[in-house]
Amino acid sequence: MIERDDAVRIVEEELARSHQAWVAAGVEQFPRSVVVHVVVHELVWKVYVQSEEYARTRNVAAMLVGHGPYLVDRVNGGLHSIGAVSEIQGAWEDDYRSRIRGLPVRTPVDDLHDELRTVAEATGSRIAAVRALRRKVTGLSPTHALPDACPRLRNRAARGRSADPAPGHRSPGACETARPCARRTYLRR
Q1: Domain segments of the chain as ranges
Q2: Where are the beta strands (DSSP E) in 13-157?
Q3: Is residue 88 classed exposed, middle or buried when 0-12, 13-18 and 19+ CB atoms within 10 A define those classes?
């Protein structure tokens, strides 16, 4: 586990390397950057940097703008940087979870699936799940809600039941069988 002081040291080393690269490229007027603020996040340490002159004098003319913080992974100490807009909007979090950590990113749809599954298991009825779906997704007709709620209830093995029902057996919730749901279309003549 990477502590705050380690995160600051990692960023300061990167700032020193970066400054040396600019000096070696002949840009001697490039301002030196320093760490000004550190915030803990569940995944990373967010380390904010600013020009040394601004940190010392608070002269706005010396302020570096348009850059986001450095991210130091709290598990392995990996160093990453993000843009200012991504940091303000929080867009970096899902990207970091999936690309850097390899974690699945939960969406509101995943939460809805879990809620429908919980309702169906608690009541033993897929109709209750359809009603819950229609409360969440306003304007959804029962005809459209039934097939949409139906696949969410299929996983019999996860609930400790046999995955393959006996031939010809049909459980009270049609969606809990191994056959797929079918929409019925009624034609008027």
Answers
A1: 4-100, 108-176
A2: 33-40, 44-51, 67-73, 79-83
A3: exposed
Residues composing the chain: 189
**Side-chain half-sphere CA neighbours of 47 within 13 A:** 28
Name which of 46-60, 117-131, 134-148 the model is least confident about.
Answer: 134-148
Which of 60, 161, 175 has its CA nearest to residue 116? Answer: 175
3-state SS class at 45: strand
Using one digit for the tens of pLDDT, what is the confidence trace for 32-88? 999 999 999 999 999 999 999 999 999 999 999 889 999 999 999 999 999 999 999
Q: Are 93 and 43 in contact (CB under 8 A)?
A: yes
Beta-bridged to residue 25, according to DSSP, are: none
